[in-house]
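[recover] target loaded
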């Protein structure tokens, strides 16, 4: 069976409290996690940014030119590899057209790790914090 081309978008921002992670939960599910999706052209960073902006209404910029990590999809999902990309939150995307059928929240490191149940993603939260926390500029709220 061919492996899927899945993307996991880790979106972060820095506030006066520290680095925060954007988590979402589909309205019909109770689990919190990062946005993930299948994408035909998963090597094009602009396609990934466009999808995140349109689907989840977030203006973002990539913090790395290649995937930060890869992991296997869970056994309850379609088989494949997930490529984890890290983005800095720049604000709301005003022209986004996708439906709002999800809940979202910003979480500091420890809360993000508690809310995300999948162990490999919990480790990625820690790794992203360690690797990128110095590169994230302070987000000014309007």
């Amino acid at each position: 069976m061919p492996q899927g081309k899945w993307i996991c978008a880790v979106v972060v921002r820095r506030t006066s409290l520290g680095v925060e992670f954007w988590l979402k939960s589909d309205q019909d599910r109770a689990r919190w996690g990062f946005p993930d999706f299948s994408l035909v052209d998963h090597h094009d960073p602009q396609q990934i940014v466009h999808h995140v902006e349109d689907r989840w209404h977030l203006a973002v910029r990539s913090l790395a030119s290649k995937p930060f990590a890869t992991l296997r999809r869970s056994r309850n999902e379609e088989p494949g590899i997930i490529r984890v990309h890290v983005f800095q939150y720049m604000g709301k995307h005003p022209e986004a057209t996708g439906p709002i059928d999800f809940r979202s929240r910003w979480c500091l490191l420890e809360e993000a790790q508690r809310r995300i149940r999948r162990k490999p993603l919990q480790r990625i939260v820690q790794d992203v914090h360690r690797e990128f926390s110095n590169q994230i500029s302070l987000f000014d709220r309007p």
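[recover] notes: The chain has one domain: 4-133.
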